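Let's practice the habit of predicting before peeking. Look at the sequence and jot down your guess about where helices and strands might fall. Then scroll down.
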Amino acid sequence: MHNGLCKSLKQVVHFYNTRNLTTVPGEVIDFTLPDPYANLKGKPLWDKPEILSPLTLTNPTGAKPLAAGEERSANINPNINGYGEVGNLGLTEQEEIDLVNFMSTLTDGYSLPSS
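Done guessing? Here is the structure:
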């Protein structure tokens, strides 16, 4: 990625699936808070971002899509698009693998010639 943290497509997909999670199941780091790391019960799975910006988030709660006919609760942030956020996509390990396999089909096979 931009800073060289991830060395493979698999690592990139896993990063975007788990960036906002901690070692405590269900705990999500909310980057819309002034100090998103305050009061966490678990240890973040990834190091802090170089730049903390709530502008990179579309759904800080990580809410799942609504079921057919289901209405959103009044206590939920109205800016939510209804999907898991980048950093908390909720993908299973198999779904991560499937996504990597799909994206791998999009390559043209080009690689730099060895010198």
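How did you do? The radius of gyration is 17 Å.
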